[in-house]
Structure formats: structure tokens, C-alpha cells
């Protein structure tokens, strides 16, 4: 299936636009269209995703937003405090939207104009809240994220409470045994009538439920589809054509089982499932809002990632994985087996400025990640829905405050018990100075048995880990099996994968979940459970279904058909590397940057995850947020994805590499045969199959066309350069000496600074820098104009230090000086500066350190606009367009074979699994 997901009006290169439009027209007719049944399925998936998002949004509000409002706002803006400053109540959804004297605090029609956000950002000098001091960046970011989500707020008036004499049942009064997920799973009796196509009793359970509803089971998938599905699910990579052919033509009755076992034994399986687990563990390589907002590397983060890979590779029993991740200081105190690194599960999370938030994050990853309980919602009050009192939260709180992160220990990721472990007070309304009763360190109320005693072995982490890892725990096996099912089937049995609370209904075929959970609790082997699922009829069935079946079961709750799936970010990127001959198979090691202009050969699991500044490409392709535990991935289809694949320097380079591999494989042949051979080899390499006759004809026709002359478009961002110069007595710019090193997003003269001599700390970042030492030397941010026209320059100059003598800033437009000012302990907007510039002339933003270079860090951001004589407009921003070394090769247009390779790499057939 080869369809395109972008608008051609957005294409940057004229030649590429013409060529891709032409080839699209000839290809669309040769590929199988998506049928109406598939469209209906996609729509139902969208509806299901909306429901999931709503559930996650409520959890986000309860665990992140409500505590902020209680701590910083309720004292003056709540009914409980009998206070409504400015006629504004913030303790209800209605209060936020009705607002006060300034209007609605949240405006659903235009969330960007939120009065609440304006107040906490201190953007209005007459309205700054809270008045005692501005919130930290993390808190403001949380409120901004909530507002961008649509300000979901579950605090609505209970209609039953409005009825006279109506009695409302408190969640604390709910009998845990009345909820299916809080009762230990039992192996259900198999259905009386077995389906002849079944391979496992779970197939019979699903078939029986489908039969009751009149839903027909889909036919088995073809062998070529099945092997692609297996490789995607178990390795994240596509099979080669020869691997597919061997399986399709094999007459061995155990051919499928042999492939499953070989893939489960491969290192790629361990990398694939480790990445799934890293979503649960909110893995990242940087700490976040720590050290006053300065971002830094999280020491040893890669050791947790590599431990996770080893755990899946060796099929470590799951209960052992839990014990090591929560109490590795007790199971492997000297890290002799490397299991102390497993405690990164707790310590690789964001380091918040408020220590309470860091502890809350760790409570959240333990409870939602391992047992599917939203305990963090009980930070400020008893849980609104589940029998989870605030005391449960502070039981966990006491366990973690009785533990300390020991970065200088046997592992930089370890935690250890403090000398005097202790229970902790409940913090009433979540406020640090508002102490309530003592919360005993013990297990969760809803799961606690009559004989369970408080935790007294050190901090209690080991006792907690044993309770969670126990085969008798009703939630642990269910939660893990449900996650595995979602990864392999494409849709979990329980949609809210990290919330098994009382609002969560049992799945339509709960017998499948309970059967797998009981079995898993016995053997604790993730590989065995994965193997059992992929050997089932449910896994092997086709995604094709009748319209009647889709109408009767639109969400596929009865497991009567396969779910069509798209490659996730990691699988897509790794597959691009593989088919281009670029993939490196090394296991483990330091994280690597994957966003440079040249592709990095390592698998995506080894990418540097910068929690604070996650690169846009991760977000574009729906990567899990590393800020908090991620229950599961959400998949979107947006233009940015196709535009990245179309214009990104890495994808262009990978298309070139695919074409180079194809040419090398074909070798030298006569012209009559060459184009056909190239087309065939290209389809084999990218799609792992032979081209159809229609495809071969279309591709050969395209390859035979001549390439039209190409004039690259003007890219203002590519005109910037960075370096130093000498200044004469009139401050005119002398010889420009470019910086040669780009390191840590900074241009500088050598690999390490400061340098001895005049350069000192001389360096330039995207909107800031530090001057040279010599008074007649200047730091230069230069833009070379690609056109002639009238130029207008605006911007801001800032020097924030009272010490020192400031910096001298000059702007030269060609031979003319149009700005010259001293910046010292102030912020100053400048411009508009106007002048005339000719093509090839430069605009230089020059800074020097005057008499002293002490305290000469500065911020200087400028915007340049040019209007040419024929009305063409060009604009560049010095900060937004800041970049490192450019790969000039990517400017060269793709030739015919390279363009065809790019088209196939962008196709649905490459991106989708079935």
C-alpha cells in the first residue's frame, strides 16, 4: 500500500515537487486502496483514543495540577477557606470558568488568553500571583501543559448530592473485593465448544465471546504478512526478502514456531522490549528542572537502560526485576551482578526544584507502573474514586523519605536506607508545613490482608517490593500481561493500562487476561508469555474483516481480527537505517545524539533523551514523554511527519544511501536492463518483496526521465556564520576568522575553553555569548545577504551583571555602522534600524569586552527583514536560525533513483506493519 500523507503545496524544492507529483500519479493506480472497513476501524480507534486521553488527563490534573492549586491558590481562592479574593474561586471547574473581577480564569474558546496563566507568569504587572513570589518554572510549565490540554477538570458537582436526602458513598467505603481487578485472578474454565482453528485456550475464550455476539472471526494472515508482523513486534525491524521467502516456501510444520524462538533469542528482541519498559520508567538522560533551572546530564542513566536490555535478554523473572528496581541496595548491594543499576527505575525521573514533587514522581512510577493504581491522586485528599486514602500516599512517602539517593555509591543510580527510617506525617492538603496524623509505612489499604503488618525492615522498600512482586498480588501480573498484550496485539485488553481502579471495567474477554495472568504469576517469564501470545490464533489472524463484524464490534473488543498498526518512532527510524545499510548492531553504551544532519548509526533506544529540551522530531513522531510515567503511546497522523521525511537532511541522506546500495547490488548492466534491475532491487530492499508488473513499469518510466535543471531555494538560515575579528580605532570590522568547533550547541575556537591569550571565553550560542579578552577584538555573528534590498533590523540586547564594565555592541550593514551602544546591567530593545544592502554584503553583530572581559556574558537576539526591489521578502531570526556545521551535501537535489527511494521510504507500505 503506497499512499502519501502530505500536501504537495508544502514541498520546498520545485524539482522534487514536480517529480514526486508525477510518480505519485502513476503509482496511486497500482497500489491497493484502504477499504471502507479499514476506514471504519481507524475512526473507531480515534474515538477510543479520545476516551483514553480523557482518563489520562484526569490523572494529570489530580496528580499535578490540583496539588499546585491547593498549595498556592486555595488560601485566597477557595470555598473551604471562605475566601474569594477578586471574586474568584479556584476550587471548582465552574469557578475557574466563571472567574472573578478580571473575567474567566480559563477561557475554553481561547486558552492562550488564560488569566490564570498570565497571573502565574507575572506577564501583567498589575496581576501577579501568588503575591508572595513567582512559581518555579516547573510549576508554570505544568499549568501551561494542563491549559494546552484543554484544562481538563473533574471537579464537577455530583448530581446525586443535589437530591434531598441523597447519600453519597465515599470511595473509602468501597469494598475492594467488589472490584474485579482487586480480586486475585483464577484460571477460568475453558468453553465447551472449541474452535478448530484455536492454538490456545485463550483463542477459545475469544471465539466463544465473538460467537455469542454474532461476530465472525477473521481468517489467518498470509505467511508473508505474519513474518513481517513478528519481526516488527519482536525486533522492531523488517525482515529481508530472503527471510520472508524461506518462511513462505517452507514445508516444515514447525516453521512458524522456529521463527518465533529465533527472534525471542535475538539481541534485537531485548532492545525492543527494553524500550517498551523505558516508557513505563519515564527514562531520560537529563534531570530536568534541577540546579536552579540549569539542565545537566543524569549520571549513569545509560546503566539503567543497559540493565533493562540485559534483563529482557536473559529473561530475568519479573518478580526479580521488581525487587532489583525497588530494592537493589538489598538484593545486590555491591553491584557485583549489575543489579544495583536497576534502581534507575526510581532515580532516572525528573529532579524537581520542589523535593515533594520528586517524591511524588517516584510514588507515581511505582504505583501506576507496577500495580496500576493512581495513588498520586491521594496526595492532597482521599482518592476521589478508589479506596485509596491519603494515608496510603504518605505510607509510600515515608518509605521514600526513609531512603536516599547515593550517587557516589556502588552505582550512581542507587538508593539506600537512611540511618533512622521513620514514618511520616500526612501533609494536609499536600502542604509541606501543614502536618496531620502519622501515616504508618505499610501496604495499600485496598490490597492489605488482615495479617499484614507495618513495614519495619529499614525503609520498607524491600517489603513493599515483595508485596508487589508476590504471585498472590491481584494486580501485578494483570498489569504486566496487559502491557505485553497491547505491544503485541496493538490494543491492550484494559484500555487504561496504568489505572485498574474501580472506574475501570473488566475487558470484554476478561478470561484471556486472567488466564494469562495466572499463568504468568506461576512462571514469571516475560518471554514465555510473549511466546504464548504470538503463537495464538488471535495473534495470527488477519486485519481484514467484514463490514458486519466491524459494525457489531467496532472497537475489536472481542479480538476477532488483528489491529492494523503503524511503526512507532524507534521502529521507523531503525528500519530506515537497516534498509539503507547504515544500522550498527552494538549493544549498550553512552547515549548518542540522533538529530544531527548526518544519520547516527545506533539504534534509537540509544538516543540521548534530553528531558528538558526534547528535540522536535521525537514529539513529531509521538515519542513517549519522559517527564512522567507513560501508560502507552498515542499515535497521530500530522503533516509534520511527512514533511520531516520529505525535507529532513537525515532522510535525504538515507535515501541517497539506499540508492547507492541498490546501484552497488545491480552493478554494470546495459541500459535496456539497468532501469528494470534498479527498480526491482529497490523494491526488494525497501519492501522485502518483488515489484508487481505495474510497479516495475511505472518505476522504469520514472527512472528514464531526464532531470530538470535545479536552482536551490534561498534559505536565510544557511547565511549565518560565527567567529571573531579585529577592530580598528573606528571599530570597523577587520578580517573575519570563523570559529572551527561546534560543541554543546556552542560555537568556539577550540575544543576546550577558556583559552589562554586574547580569545579567553569567546563563544556564541543561539542567543547569547561571551566576549573576547582583548579590547580591540570583536565577537561576530555574521549574516551574508543573498539578495539586494532594503533591510530592517530589530532585536534585544541584554547584559545582566552589575559587576564589570559591560560590553560594547555594534551593528555594521555592509560598510555602514548603523548601531553602537554599551550594554551594562540592563535589557534594551533596539531598532528598527534601516539601511540598504547589496547581494553578498554582510550584516555583522559585533561585541567586544571594553577594558575588562570580566562578567561579559550577554544576550543579543536580532531579527533581519529584507524587501527586494521586486517585492520579495526575506526574514531571518538570529536565535531561531542558529545552527551548527551545515552538511552541504543535503542541498544537492536527489537524482531519479534517490527520489524513488525516498518515495518508497515515505510510503504507507513501509510505515505500516500489515
Can you walk through the features of this model?
The chain is α+β, with helices and mostly antiparallel strands and 914 residues long. Helix content is 37%, strand content 12%. It has 29 helices and 20 strands. Strands 9, 10, 11, 12, 14, 17, 19 and 20 form an eight-stranded antiparallel beta sheet that branches. It has a six-stranded antiparallel beta sheet with strand order 8-7-13-18-15-16, with no helix packed on it. Helix 25 (649-666) packs across helix 28. The longest helix has 37 residues, at 36-72. The N and C termini lie close together (9 Å). Mean pLDDT is 87; it is low at 1-53 and 157-167.
Describe the SSE topology:
Elements: H1 14-28, H2 36-72, E1 77-78, E2 83-84, H3 93-98, H4 115-120, H5 137-148, H6 201-213, H7 223-235, H8 241-249, H9 255-264, H10 267-280, H11 301-313, H12 318-331, H13 344-347, H14 355-371, H15 390-401, E3 403-405, E4 415-417, E5 424-427, E6 435-439, H16 461-469, H17 476-489, H18 510-523, H19 526-534, H20 537-540, H21 547-552, H22 569-579, H23 616-620, H24 639-647, H25 649-666, H26 671-687, H27 693-703, E7 720-726, E8 737-738, E9 741-743, E10 746-748, E11 763-764, E12 768-770, E13 777-784, E14 789-799, E15 807-813, E16 816-823, E17 826-837, E18 842-848, E19 857-867, E20 873-877, H28 896-905, H29 908-911
Antiparallel strand pairs: 1-2, 3-4, 5-6, 7-8, 7-13, 9-10, 10-11, 11-12, 12-19, 13-18, 14-17, 14-19, 15-16, 15-18, 19-20
Helix pairs in contact: 1-27, 1-28, 2-5, 6-18, 7-8, 7-9, 10-11, 12-16, 14-15, 17-18, 17-19, 24-25, 25-26, 25-28, 26-27, 26-28
Amino acid at each position: 500500500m503506497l499512499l502519501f500523507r502530505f500536501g504537495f503545496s508544502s514541498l520546498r524544492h520545485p524539482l522534487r515537487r514536480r517529480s514526486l507529483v508525477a510518480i505519485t500519479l502513476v503509482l496511486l493506480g497500482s497500489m491497493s486502496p484502504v477499504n471502507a472497513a479499514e476506514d471504519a476501524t481507524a475512526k473507531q480507534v480515534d474515538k477510543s483514543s479520545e476516551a483514553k486521553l480523557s482518563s489520562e488527563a484526569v490523572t494529570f490534573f489530580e496528580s499535578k495540577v490540583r496539588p499546585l492549586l491547593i498549595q498556592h491558590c486555595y488560601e485566597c481562592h477557595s470555598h473551604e477557606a471562605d475566601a474569594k479574593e477578586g471574586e474568584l474561586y479556584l476550587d471548582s471547574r465552574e469557578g475557574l470558568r466563571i472567574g472573578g473581577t478580571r473575567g474567566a480564569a480559563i477561557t475554553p474558546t481561547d486558552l492562550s488568553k488564560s488569566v490564570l496563566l498570565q497571573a502565574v507568569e507575572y506577564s501583567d504587572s498589575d496581576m501577579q500571583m501568588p503575591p508572595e513570589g513567582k512559581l518555579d518554572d516547573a510549576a508554570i510549565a505544568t499549568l501551561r501543559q494542563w491549559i494546552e490540554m484543554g484544562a481538563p477538570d473533574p471537579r464537577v458537582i455530583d448530581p446525586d448530592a443535589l437530591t434531598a436526602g441523597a447519600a453519597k458513598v465515599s470511595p473509602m467505603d468501597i469494598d475492594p473485593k467488589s472490584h474485579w481487578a482487586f480480586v486475585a485472578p483464577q484460571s477460568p474454565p475453558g468453553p465447551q465448544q472449541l474452535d478448530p482453528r484455536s492454538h490456545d485456550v485463550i483463542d477459545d475464550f475469544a471465539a466463544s465471546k465473538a460467537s455469542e455476539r454474532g461476530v465472525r472471526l477473521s481468517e489467518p494472515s498470509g505467511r508473508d504478512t505474519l513474518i513481517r508482523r513478528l519481526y516488527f513486534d519482536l525486533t522492531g525491524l523488517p525482515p529481508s526478502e530472503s527471510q520472508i521467502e524461506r518462511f513462505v516456501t517452507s514445508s516444515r510444520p514447525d516453521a512458524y514456531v522456529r521463527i518465533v524462538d529465533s527472534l525471542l533469542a535475538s539481541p534485537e528482541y531485548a532492545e525492543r522490549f527494553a524500550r517498551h519498559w523505558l516508557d513505563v520508567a519515564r527514562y531520560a538522560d537529563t534531570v530536568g528542572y534541577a540546579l536552579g533551572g540549569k539542565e545537566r546530564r543524569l549520571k549513569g542513566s545509560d546503566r539503567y537502560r543497559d540493565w533493562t536490555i540485559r534483563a529482557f535478554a536473559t529473561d530475568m523473572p519479573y518478580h526479580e526485576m521488581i525487587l532489583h528496581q525497588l530494592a537493589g541496595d538489598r538484593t545486590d548491594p555491591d553491584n557485583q551482578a549489575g543489579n544495583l543499576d536497576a534502581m534507575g527505575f526510581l532515580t532516572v525521573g525528573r529532579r524537581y526544584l520542589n523535593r515533594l514533587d520528586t517524591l511524588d514522581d517516584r510514588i507515581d512510577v511505582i504505583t501506576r507502573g507496577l500495580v496500576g493504581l493512581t495513588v498520586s491522586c491521594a496526595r492532597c485528599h482521599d482518592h476521589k474514586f478508589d479506596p485509596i486514602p491519603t494515608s496510603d500516599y504518605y505510607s509510600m512517602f515515608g518509605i521514600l523519605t526513609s531512603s536516599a539517593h547515593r550517587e557516589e555509591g556502588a552505582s550512581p543510580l542507587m538508593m539506600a536506607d537512611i540511618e533512622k527510617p521513620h514514618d511520616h506525617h500526612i501533609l494536609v492538603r499536600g502542604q509541606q508545613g501543614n502536618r496531620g496524623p502519622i501515616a504508618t509505612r505499610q501496604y495499600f489499604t485496598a490490597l492489605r490482608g488482615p495479617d499484614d503488618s507495618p513495614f519495619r525492615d529499614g525503609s520498607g522498600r524491600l517489603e513493599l517490593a515483595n508485596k508487589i512482586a508476590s504471585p498472590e498480588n491481584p494486580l501485578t501480573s494483570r498489569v504486566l500481561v496487559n502491557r505485553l498484550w497491547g505491544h503485541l496485539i496493538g490494543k491492550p485488553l484494559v484500555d487504561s493500562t496504568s489505572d485498574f481502579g474501580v472506574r475501570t471495567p473488566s475487558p470484554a474477554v476478561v478470561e484471556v487476561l486472567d488466564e494469562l495472568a495466572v499463568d504468568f504469576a506461576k512462571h514469571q517469564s516475560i518471554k514465555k508469555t510473549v511466546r504464548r501470545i504470538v503463537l495464538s490464533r488471535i495473534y495470527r489472524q488477519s486485519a481484514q474483516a467484514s463490514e458486519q463484524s466491524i459494525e457489531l464490534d467496532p472497537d475489536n473488543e472481542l479480538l476477532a481480527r488483528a489491529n492494523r498498526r503503524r511503526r512507532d518512532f524507534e521502529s521507523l527510524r531503525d528500519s530506515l537505517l537497516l534498509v539503507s545499510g547504515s544500522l550498527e548492531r552494538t549493544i549498550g553504551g553512552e547515549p548518542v545524539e540522533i538529530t544531527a544532519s548526518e544519520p547516527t548509526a545506533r539504534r534509537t533506544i540509544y538516543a540521548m533523551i534530553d528531558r528538558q529540551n526534547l528535540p522536535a522530531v521525537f514529539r513529531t513522531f509521538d515519542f513517549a514523554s519522559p517527564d512522567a510515567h507513560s501508560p502507552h503511546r498515542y499515535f497521530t497522523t500530522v503533516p509534520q511527519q511527512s514533511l520531516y521525511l520529505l525535507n529532513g537532511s537525515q532522510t535525504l541522506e538515507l535515501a541517497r544511501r539506499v540508492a547507492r546500495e541498490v546501484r552497488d547490488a545491480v552493478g554494470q548492466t546495459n541500459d535496456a536492463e539497468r532501469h528494470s534491475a534498479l527498480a526491482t532491487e529497490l523494491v526488494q530492499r525497501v519492501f522485502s518483496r518483488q515489484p508487481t508488473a505495474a510497479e516495475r513499469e511505472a518505476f522504469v518510466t520514472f527512472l528514464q526521465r531526464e532531470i530538470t535543471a535545479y536552482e536551490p531555494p534561498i534559505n536565510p538560515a544557511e547565511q549565518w556564520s560565527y567567529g571573531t575579528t579585529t577592530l580598528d580605532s573606528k571599530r570597523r570590522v577587520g578580517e573575519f576568522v570563523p570559529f572551527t568547533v561546534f560543541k554543546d550547541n556552542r560555537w568556539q575556537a577550540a575544543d576546550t575553553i577558556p583559552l589562554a591569550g586574547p580569545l579567553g571565553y569567546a563563544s556564541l550560542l543561539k542567543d547569547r555569548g561571551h566576549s573576547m579578552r582583548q579590547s580591540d577584538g570583536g565577537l561576530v555573528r555574521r549574516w551574508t545577504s543573498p539578495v539586494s534590498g532594503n533591510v530592517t533590523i530589530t532585536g534585544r540586547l541584554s547584559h545582566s551583571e552589575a559587576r564589570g564594565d559591560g560590553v560594547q555592541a555594534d551593528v555594521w550593514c555592509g560598510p555602514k555602522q548603523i548601531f553602537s551602544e554599551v550594554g551594562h546591567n540592563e535589557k534594551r530593545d533596539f531598532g528598527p534600524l534601516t539601511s540598504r544592502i547589496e547581494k553578498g554584503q554582510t550584516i555583522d553583530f559585533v561585541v567586544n569586552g571594553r577594558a575588562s572581559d570580566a562578567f561579559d556574558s550577554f544576550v543579543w537576539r536580532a531579527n533581519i527583514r529584507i524587501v527586494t526591489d521586486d517585492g520579495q521578502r526575506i526574514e531571518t531570526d538570529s536565535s531561531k536560525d542558529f545552527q551548527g556545521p551545515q552538511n552541504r551535501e543535503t542541498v544537492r537535489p536527489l537524482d531519479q533513483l534517490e527520489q524513488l527511494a525516498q518515495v518508497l521510504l515515505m510510503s504507507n507500505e513501509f510505515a505500516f506493519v500489515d
